[in-house]
Design goal:
Layout: E1 20-22, H1 25-33, H2 36-46, H3 52-59, H4 63-75, E2 79-82, E3 91-94, H5 96-99, H6 102-115, E4 124-128, E5 133-135, E6 137-141, E7 153-157, E8 163-165, H7 178-181, H8 188-196, H9 199-209, H10 215-222, H11 226-238, E9 242-247, E10 252-257, H12 259-263, H13 265-278, E11 286-290, E12 295-296, E13 299-303, E14 315-319
Antiparallel strand pairs: 1-8, 2-3, 4-5, 4-14, 6-13, 7-11, 9-10, 11-12
Keywords: Plasmid
Protein name: Transcriptional regulator
InterPro entries: HTH_HxlR, WH-like_DNA-bd_sf, WH_DNA-bd_sf
């Protein structure tokens, strides 16, 4: 729950104290990935799209919206603008930072393939060019290369731990629009982002991983409006990420993770690793210990067959759906 360390002391002029939020590399990464259009642009970039007109043709995105999102991705050093010899016009290329987001997409894909395929084959078959095998992405401990669960991880404060003022931008709108996320092609990553939903849903999930289970504790910790919290919790229960468990003698409930919900921890840790590398200025807010091997670790994504890390340049695909664009 909120304590004396999560509010700036009340100013002498009597104005309200400023609410704070935990420093979080995952949150910083989510602010990039959770925007629907950003995700769709990045997805098509990983499929090799580089030209403005091709992004617009593939996505049916308004020109002004595409221009603003590409500008933001360039400003965040996810993409860069350049030209190729003997090819007309400027193109958008993934930077090293942008290429390094690929494991985040793969971990989200791993979750979607496992939990959201509805009994069908996953939409995409990965081919790991390094070993030549059809494979699945597997999120593992970067030290022992073994898979882990949320129960296997012991977090503690890192050198960048602390609090920052809560972002005051409007947040009632859901960032990841499910009507757009699977535009053009079916996609396990899109289905996963559709569950996470938006910044509030992510923050609620993060509170759950910190052991917070009750409505009032979440409301106080997050400074979230009651109606928004109720809406997001209902969505997460409907999506089978949380289950409601009654407590005490009243008609109140705790919100506990299902096994599916616990599995979302893995892509969150891959996002955290990216944020630690690129956004934390060498001071990650949190350290993680893998209880199984006893080592501090970062989550990485490897090929299910050769156990080597998967990078964007080493990946090919077989589409299990018709695609004409």
């Amino acid at each position: 729950m909120l304590n004396k360390d999560t509010l700036i002391p009340e100013p002498s002029n009597g104005s309200k104290p400023v609410p704070l939020q935990r420093q979080s590399s995952v949150r910083r990464t989510m602010e990039i990935v959770l925007d629907t259009w950003n995700f769709l642009i990045l997805r098509e970039a990983y499929f090799g799209v580089r030209r403005f007109d091709k992004f617009q043709q593939r996505l049916g995105i308004p020109r002004q919206t595409l221009s603003s999102r590409l500008s933001a991705l360039v400003a965040n050093e996810i993409m860069s603008v350049g030209r190729r010899p003997n090819e007309p016009g400027q193109q958008y290329f993934l930077t090293e930072r942008g290429k390094d987001l690929f494991p985040t997409m793969l971990s989200l894909m791993e979750f979607g393939d496992k939990w959201l395929a509805g009994g069908s084959e996953p939409p995409l078959q990965l081919i790991h060019k390094s070993c030549g095998c059809a494979c699945r992405p597997v999120t593992v401990c970067g030290e022992c290369l073994e898979p882990f669960t949320a129960r296997d991880v012991a977090p503690r404060d890192g050198p960048g731990a602390g609090y920052a003022p809560v972002d005051t931008r409007p947040t009632s709108r859901r960032s990841s629009d499910p009507t757009l996320l699977e535009r053009v092609r079916p996609c396990s990553v899109a289905r996963t982002l559709g569950i996470i939903g938006d910044r509030w849903s992510f923050l609620i999930l993060r509170e759950g991983w910190f052991g917070v289970r009750r409505f009032e504790e979440m409301r106080e910790n997050l400074g979230i409006a009651t109606n928004i919290l109720a809406d997001r919790l209902a969505r997460l229960v409907q999506a089978e990420v949380f289950r409601k468990v009654p407590y005490g003698s009243s008609e109140r409930f705790e919100y506990r993770f299902t096994e599916m919900g616990l599995d979302l921890y893995k892509p969150m840790l891959v996002m955290m690793a990216w944020g630690d590398r690129w956004l934390a200025e060498g001071k990650p807010p949190m350290r993680l210990r893998h209880k199984t091997c006893g080592q501090d670790f970062s989550a990485i994504v490897v090929c299910s067959e050769c156990k080597k890390q998967i990078t964007v340049k080493d990946t090919d695909y077989i589409l299990r759906y018709p695609f004409n664009l």
